[in-house]
Amino acid sequence: MSNNQTTTSAHHPAHVHQFDSMEQQNEVASFGMWVFLLTEIMMFGGLFAAYLIYRIKFYPAFVAGSTSISVAWGFANTLVLIGSSWTMAMGVWAAQQGKRKAQVWFILATMVLGAAFLGVKAKEYYDKYEECHIPGHIIGKEFNAWGGCKVGDPSMGNIAEEIRDAKHHGDPSIPENSAIETAKQTQIFFSFYFAMTGLHATHMLIGLGVLTWLLFRAKRGEFGPEYYSPVENVGLYWHFVDIVWIFLFPLLYLISRHQHHG
Amino acid sequence: MSEHAHPSRALYLVIFAALIVGTCLTWGIAFKDLGIWNPVVALTIAVIKATLVILYFMHVRYSNKLTIVTVCAGFFWLLILISLSLSDYLSRSWSLQ
Amino acid sequence: MSTVNQVAIPKVEVMPEKHYLNDNYGIRSWLLTKDHKRIAVLYLFTITFFFFLGGLFAALIRLELLTPQGDLFQSDTYNKLFTMHGVNMIFFFLIPSVPAVLGNFLVPLMVGAKDLAFPKINLLSWYIFIAGAAFALAALVSGGVDTGWTFYTPLSSGFLKTPVVVLGVGILIAGFASIFTGLNFIVTVHRMRAPGLTWGRLPLFVWANYAASLIMVLGTPVLAITLILLVLERGFHIGIFDPKLGGDPVLFQHMFWFYSHPAVYIMILPGMGVISEIITCFSRKRVFGYTFIAFSSIAIAVFGFVVWAHHMFVAGISTYSALVFSLLSFAVAIPSAVKVFNWTATMYKGSVTLSTPMLYALGFIGLFTIGGLTGLFLAALGLDIHVHDTYFVVAHFHYVMVGGMVMAYLGGLHFWWPKMTGRLYPEAWAKMAALITFIGFNLTFFPQFILGYLGMPRRYHAYPEEFQVLNVLSSAGASVLAVGFILPLIYFLYSLRYGQVAGNNPWKATGLEWETTSPPPTHNFEETPIVTCDPYNYGDDEEVHVVK
Q1: Is C252 in CB contact (< 8 Å) with chain B?
Q2: Which of A72, B28, C52, C62 has the highest CB neighbour count under 10 A?
Q3: What is the domain range of residue B87?
Q4: pLDDT of A144-161, one tens digit each?
């Protein structure tokens, strides 16, 4: 692993002094990114661990909370994000192949899909705001598990009613405590829903920012077969964010869906 | 780093298709009652999808050992965090007698 | 490169003409530097400030505890004092001390690199640290925080009216500084080693910093997410840690200690690396059991992650889980003991010189052993219930962190001071300071073991009268300790101007950092060094182990 002596590629304009060669520099950049992703795994990991503990503890409340969010939008968003991961991978590929135009288009496509994802997310958040399902008391509205701000409005996904129904039908997963208690616990579900998707969306926003920077550099034709580590590293980051969502989708949207539909 | 082999355009498309199929599968199966197996199946599909992304989109299949060790270390430490915290929560109600 | 031994006749050393300190002048050249050595100096100034600020709080605490009545401060003020003491010392002094100052300066030199892998990120790390510190100071001047450095919920999330969020955000930000330092070290050690410098030839200081970096990278993000949840809980009452809303406050403790127990090893591991270097140099003997010392660092880093709940034995966690954590905690003693035994064996039959760094190193071995063994008391389930949250705990972790880490940091600072500045400190004064520190330290903290065992709880500003004698002893010791800490500050500054010129290798030590000039040139080495033999080639022939 010791670095090799200087090679001919040492005169690339992007080469910086502490490295003996461009190869070493590229390898170091990629490894550095992986170590950074290690920290990201642990950061999201803390949230996943906490989520898991409460999911076991308050399972009925998590079922109720989960069924109140739109699985169709979540599903669509998963497809959008996977699509953006593919365009990103193709962007890296195009950079490696030295296809300047193609890489610009792929980066642009990734940004469009990323923005679409955030748009859908914003719509989902707004729905939850309308239904008063944002935990705590943020933006003037207080959390209300009882079917939204207007009590009894059936259009707003009446969580507490569902719990009551499920208990009525003899669902054994609902413990002895009252439906009211369970309805209150759905707040914890929504805390995790917003914390996890919020942290994820923040990463998407940062990703979009970095992609913009990448787009300009790609347009100037800075990347080619010898030097594409910025594209590759942004790609690694973007795929990581995609992987987080691959887990968030089943964990948040698909808890015991079969109890309530089809 | 042209000395590294990288997936071809066609392979990227195959992986992309596999991810789409996996997503649809998760969605479809979620509405079937499999008892306790629902979350197990959902997470298994998620793990497979994540592995595909890591191996092909993130090129880990084509990287050196160090990268593989780094990725594994991440998941190993995550496992420590989750399993040891759960060890407390899952055994709290056990009685000593 | 010559292989001539520079021994025997003491010749007059001269400062090199061009080095990293006079390469460039002016405030800009420092604030925009990407040189790891200058960034180390920036960190040195910053953490020295926080060390003395934290020390000031400690002095006020000891002053209050001189008498049994809470007569100097109200209990609220006292709570703020020990909180700010802990936060300052842990997050703004101990965590960055050896890695960000000595590690930053030495890791690239020791691996024969021109700089760290990511110099810009290294500078960014310092700015992030400063930003975090600014938040912490803002929390201080806007009234101070009284949660204790552990921020336990629901006290911190619901009840207190103090600026908890500001301090939490400060620590969150400072955490990223630590992540970036760790990331830089890991990548540098893996990818930037000089030709011939295999893993088996790496200095033990580098091994230790590498192990600590693993913890910084794997643990700190969990603290970050914990603090984010705490801030959300406090700001919006989302309920995750609030028992009123069904949340579990113990979950906060789990997540907090998942980082903060390994963080203890972030603090001590680099210190152990310093000790390994000093002991072998001043014993003029090859270090005993190199491989064992190297791998015990990694073992401590890994085991350190599976013991955290021993802080929570009385917090209502499951008894079965507590049994497992207790057992695992005992396992950490093994790699720690491996180190102590190997250092002792290194000195055996060596020709030991009691220079200042060696005095600190010897102090470290004794005090760390006491601190470590009393840690086993606390890891034992039954005994922990008796001594939990008493002064026994306070004494235990001060033996590890002050007796261990601060001693190691000061030892390392003396050892590499000639390399960093090109000048020697006054040896007689330094020896006296080391001795004063050792005496003052034991006088301060040994009585606290007894106090704790007798049942004096920590974190109270008043105590029963029968504890006064021991408390007075402890406060008296603290003032001696203060002298021991202020002396080096004075003579280090003095030596910058009047110190004797050191020459490249005043200790005749091995290692790449001693091959270059003192102070080193900006690019560290004129040519990339090539390493041809094992480290610590002390003894028989005293061969220089490097050819260029």
Answers
A1: no
A2: C62
A3: 65-97
A4: 766 556 544 443 345 656
